[in-house]
Write a structure and sequence with these properties.
Blueprint lengths: L14 H27 L5 E5 L5 E4 L8 E5 L24 H11 L3 H12 L19 H6 L8 H18 L4 H10 L1 H7 L6 H18 L2 H4 L2
Antiparallel strand pairs: 1-2, 1-3
Helix pairs in contact: 2-5, 3-8, 5-6, 6-7, 6-8
Length: about 230
C-alpha cells in the first residue's frame, strides 16, 4: 500500500526554527517578568519600554535618555520617593494639550503653568495612564471624583483637563491660593491636609509637592508657550 505522506510546504518553519521562536518568546517574557519583579521590589510602578541601539526591545524602571520610549505601566509619575529623575533638568512638555489647558486655566482662573506641572507630575502627559488605585487619565482623576466633576470619560484629554482644573481651582480657593497645600490635597486628599494642619508627613506627598513646585517654576519661565 502506498504511503500517503504529507508534503512539506515551502516556507514553513522547521524544527530548529520553531525551537528558536519558542526560545525568543520565552526570553521576552522572562525579561518582562524580571523587569516587573525588579520594579515591584523597588516599590515603583512605572516601567518604560524602548528599543536599544541594537534594535532589541528593552524594559527599564528609569526613564530612558535620548531615545523614544513608551510608558508600559504608570502610577503617579512624581510620587516615587527614590526617583532618580533630576526634576530641575527633566524634559518639559510645552505644547501638548495647549488649547485645552489654556482654556480651562482661563475659565477657572489658574496659572496654566501650574496645570501643566500637575499633569506632568501625575501622568507624564499620558492620557491613558491608570494608577493601581484606579485614577485615570492626564490628571489622574478617581472615578468618583470624575463623576462629581461631571467628567464622563476620563480618557478624553479635554474632559479630564476640564475636570482636573476645576478640582484644582476649588482647592486653591479653599487654601487661599496656597499652591503647596492645593498640591498636597490633590495628592493625599483634603482630609489628610486637615488632619495634619498642613502638608501630611507622607514621604510620597512631600516629594510630590516639592516636584510640582519645581515643575511649576520651570513651566512658568515659558509663559509665552503656556499662553499661546
Amino acid at each position: 500500500m502506498k504511503s500517503l505522506g504529507v508534503k512539506k510546504i515551502s516556507g514553513w518553519p522547521n524544527r530548529q526554527q520553531k525551537i528558536s521562536y519558542y526560545f525568543y518568546g520565552y526570553f521576552i517574557l522572562l525579561c518582562l517578568s524580571l523587569a516587573l519583579n525588579q520594579v515591584s521590589a523597588k516599590e515603583t510602578s512605572t516601567i518604560y519600554t524602548y528599543k536599544s541601539s541594537s534594535g532589541v526591545m528593552s524594559f527599564s524602571d528609569i526613564e530612558p535618555m535620548e531615545v523614544e520610549f513608551t510608558v508600559y505601566r504608570m502610577d503617579c509619575y512624581a510620587c516615587e520617593v527614590d526617583s532618580l529623575i533630576d526634576w530641575r533638568k527633566a524634559k518639559l512638555y510645552l505644547t501638548p494639550y495647549q488649547s485645552e489647558i489654556n482654556q480651562s486655566a482661563l475659565k477657572y482662573g489658574i496659572d496654566p503653568a501650574y496645570v501643566r506641572a500637575v499633569i506632568h507630575a501625575e501622568s507624564h502627559f499620558n492620557y491613558q495612564a491608570i494608577s493601581k488605585q484606579g485614577a485615570q487619565g492626564l490628571m489622574q482623576l478617581m472615578p468618583a471624583t470624575a463623576l462629581e466633576l461631571g467628567v464622563k470619560n476620563s480618557f478624553s484629554a479635554q474632559q479630564n483637563i476640564i475636570g482636573g482644573v476645576k478640582h484644582l481651582s476649588r482647592l486653591l480657593k479653599k487654601y487661599n491660593g496656597d499652591n503647596k497645600l492645593a498640591s498636597a490635597a490633590y495628592n493625599a486628599g483634603e482630609g489628610a491636609v486637615k488632619r495634619y494642619g498642613g502638608i501630611p508627613p507622607y514621604k510620597e506627598t512631600q516629594v510630590y509637592v516639592e516636584r510640582v513646585g519645581i515643575l511649576h517654576k520651570r513651566y512658568g519661565r515659558f509663559s509665552y508657550h503656556n499662553n499661546q
